[in-house]
Amino acid sequence: MLSSIFNTDNWLMRVCEKILDLVTLNLLFLISCLPIVTIGIAKISLYRSLQEVRESRGVRVIRLYVHTFKAEWKHGLALGGIEILVSIICLMNFLLFRGQTAMVFQGMKMLAFGLFFLMIMVMLYAYPLAARFEQSLQELLQTAFVLAGLHFLWTFGMLGFVALLTFLLIGSSWTIVFGGMFFLLAGFSSLVYLQLGILEPIFRKYDNSPQ
């Protein structure tokens, strides 16, 4: 009985291995995000590592994460820079015009909201695409935009899930505390792991397409 419990092919051991990988990658992601400008590189590294974790066992996640972090810094900096810049512009727009009710200011706020929404839609696909395919930045953003539109139901579903999760987490002081603990432990890696379960069947359709 003991041999069956500690057999590495046992379902319990496989689950424990996945949990350990998620916790390790979540910690690496948080550490590598500390200088905010590297958040894009950290995201690509997280997606790339979790793709391997989903497909294989015994992945050396630390080595893979560090290798990807070094190899994908150009795309990561570019995507992260775009994400940070658009977020700052939209946030400043809301802060500057939040008390304004004139039609022109309402239009500017709606424009900022639309831009922010579009950016999130594109980035949901851009980072995992960068982790899976070799493309230029322009091709990457174009492909992400097209996929977000072609698979809008999945895109909207992912956005809705994130919005619902955020709403639940800020519902009370207890959910903020426990939610914060979860995200510090394995929250980010777990969400990406689930997201890849949706995106991988989509990406497989394009694996053999010309890059």
From TrEMBL:
The keyword Membrane applies. The chain crosses the membrane at residues 27-47, 77-98, 110-131, 143-170, 176-196. Keywords: Membrane, Transmembrane, Transmembrane helix. The keyword Transmembrane applies. It comes from the Bacteria. This is DUF624 domain-containing protein. It comes from Streptococcus himalayensis. The lineage of its organism: Bacteria, Bacillati, Bacillota, Bacilli, Lactobacillales.
